[in-house]
Structure formats: C-alpha cells, structure tokens
Amino acid sequence: MRSETKVTAAVAVVVLAVLLAYVVVQATTSEEPASAAESAGVLVRDDSHRLGTPAPDDEVVLVEFLDLECESCRAVFPFVEQLRETYEGRVTFVLRYFPLPGHANAENAAWAVEAAAQQDALEPMYQRMYQTQAQWGERQDSQAALFRTFADDLGLDLDRYDADVASTTTRERVARDYEDGLALGVSGTPTFFLDGRQLRPSTPEDFTAAIDAALAD
Fold first, then answer.
1. pLDDT at position 202, please?
2. Please, are residues 49 and 94 in contact by the beta-carbon 8 Å criterion?
3. Potential cystine with 117: which of 41, 60, 122, 153 (Cβ 3.0-4.6 Å)?
C-alpha cells in the first residue's frame, strides 16, 4: 500500500535527525523490546488516552511514550500530527506520559495535561505544551503557574483544574504511565510502539511504511 503521508521537507529533515538519534540511543541503552503478547497488558490500558478518532476495534494502534519537556518530542510533534491527519480513523493514536527525571517541569506539564483531560481538553493542552516549550523548557523553577494560564486560556474551570493537578489520582495516573514504560523497556523519549512492538525507524519513510504494512495485514 502506498503511503499517503505528505511531510514537508523541513519537517522531514528534523524528523530524520530525531529518528537517527533515537535509533543510536536505543541501540546502546535498551533491552530487546517486549513481544506483543508480553506488552499487551501494560502498553494500552482501558483508560489510556486516545487522540482523535480511533480505528475500529483498535485494529492498528500506535503508542507514543512522551515527555512534554523533551526537545526531541517537540521536534517530532508536527510529524505525529501529520500522521494523525493522514491515518485518522484507521490508526488509533495513544498518548502515554513518560516524564524524564532530568527535566524539572516534565511532571508539572504532565499533571497539567492530565488535569485538562478531566475537562475534555487533553488535546489542546497537549498541543499547547509543545507549541510553547521553547518558553518554559529547561527551566529549573516550577512552571506550574504558567501552565495554569494555559488552562485559563482554554476556558477551563480553574478551581477544578487546581484540584485535579494536585490530586493523588492525577499523579498516580502519570506515575503509572511512567512505570508501564519502564516495564516495556522505554529508556528515552519519544518511544513508539506499533501493534505491540517497538518501532526503530531510521527515516520518516520507514515509519510510514511500518504503519502502511500494519494496515495492509
């Protein structure tokens, strides 16, 4: 099946650099990826966040473990958005949090997105984080107040948002995603799994070819 994805030259170059760096890092730090059967129980949980219109019966599922403060995740974000547009309704895109310990505001950002999700605003908050990452990323002081302004801009109930950001439920949800990632051998971000197996593409074309092959099965 011919890929329908149309990636701009600039995005393709950035994605290629990210994917090549990712392959090198994974080759030197990761254990062998879990089999589809071994990963099924923790890769996608019943309450995992699905972006956009899922595929019927989740026939083809692409999972991304991401860190909202990760520059590589931000670099690949436009490519993922293009994939979502191209494969809307045919591939289920799943977001899993994986805030890296070395990023001071990665957990704050994940808690903010999860709190927004409780008001059906996961996607706009997740997108806002990457759109503004240059403003707040790599800061050592808490950016929670800035993230609250994002919630206000999106028209969220701020009292509810504040309660959800601070709630044990929100923090346990983010921690569980992280622990699931560790169990699956995730060591860096972004890490992608397609139908239960970790993707190790070296080019954007490898990425889309893998999706097309899964759709053709």
1. 87
2. yes
3. 122
Candidates 130, 4, 14, 20; CA nearest to 67 is 130
Return the ∠ at Cα 158 (arms to 152 and 159), rounded to 5°. 170
- Contacts of residue 193, defined as CB under 8 A and 6 or more positions apart, other chains included, come to 33, 39, 43, 61, 62, 63, 65, 184, 199
Sheet containing 191-194: which strands, arranged edge to edge? 49-51, 92-97, 61-66, 191-194, 197-198
Token pair recorded at residue 23: 């392959």
Residue 93 DSSP SS3? strand
Q: Is the previous residue joined to 101 through a cis bond, with omega within 30 degrees of 0?
A: no
Tens-place pLDDT, residues 60-92 = 999 999 999 999 999 999 999 999 999 999 999
Residue 117, both tokens: 């999700």
CA distance 108 to 97: 11
pLDDT of residue 3: 47
Q: Tell me the Cα Rg of the chain.
A: 17
> Which of 159, 181, 55 shows the shortest CA–CA distance to 110?
181
Q: From 15, 134, 135, 117, select the one nearest 75 (Cα to Cα).
A: 15
| CATH numbers and ranges of domains, the chain | 9-216 (3.40.30.10)
* pTM of the predicted protein model: 0.85
Q: What is the full DSSP assignment across 27-75?
A: HHHPPPPPPHHHHHHHHS-TT-EEESSPPGGG-SEEEEEE-TT-HHHHH
